[in-house]
Amino acid sequence: MAKLSKLALYALMVCVASAHAQVMKVVAGHNPWPPYIENDGSGLVSDILRAAFDSQGIELEIQTAPFSRMLIFLEERKVDLIAALWWTERRHKTILFSQPYFHNELAVVSHKDSHADFRGAKSLRYKTVAAIRGYAYHELLESIEQVKVIDVHSLHACLEMVHKRRADFAIADVLAFAHEQKNSPQLSDLIAHMPVLLSWPLHIGVNRAHPHAEEIIVRFNLGLDELKKTGRYQQIVAKYLPEDELQ
């Protein structure tokens, strides 16, 4: 009995030690979304997250797959976090969000010669909009009367739909849209309408059921604060923003 008690005590100590063990590595997921996340996981988001976690002694791995699939992976805990996520009430119920680490400016994109008169979300009524499957702006689109949404897997696919006149509009982050136009000359016939449709802060998100959810969020926030205090954050962002936005 004494021997069994010692074994039980040892097992309990191991469990307690494991519960308090610090996270040493996290796996983040997202769909390719240049220049934020390239196909190989590099990019603006990767640079910020890697630097923030590295300052806390945490190794970061980024995996890429369609966004809707990554949300399933998050739920199934096949990844520890979503690397770039917009806050919504629906998501907040199951996902723990970090401090915002960037802001996305989302614009409506159309063909230049369509002469679209865009004056806000109501201008999308009775129109066809190409959208990335699983993205949070679907909640806005669902509230617009008689809008037809075509779900695709990437921003490039959204823009191609508009370019080929299979959709009237697409919704694109302004920086990502500029990147797509620079790398795909055929998309030069598209235009982003101003003012922007939405301005949304960008977070990392961890499944609330994850055993280390709070630790991951707290340590990322600490790392992000440190990056901003040292000026490292500004240096990272400056590599990706156009010069006129840095002035």
UniProtKB/TrEMBL annotation:
Domain Solute-binding protein family 3/N-terminal residues, every copy: 25-244
Signal keyword on record: yes
UniProt cross-references to InterPro entries, sorted A to Z: Solute-binding_3/MltF_N (IPR001638)
Residues of the signal peptide: 1-21
Name of a matching Pfam family: SBP_bac_3
Keyword Signal applies: yes
SMART domains hit by this protein: PBPb
Superkingdom, taxonomy of origin: Bacteria
Sorted UniProt keywords: Signal
UniProt family annotation: Belongs to the bacterial solute-binding protein 3 family.
Protein name: Solute-binding protein family 3/N-terminal domain-containing protein
Species, as recorded: Pseudoalteromonas byunsanensis
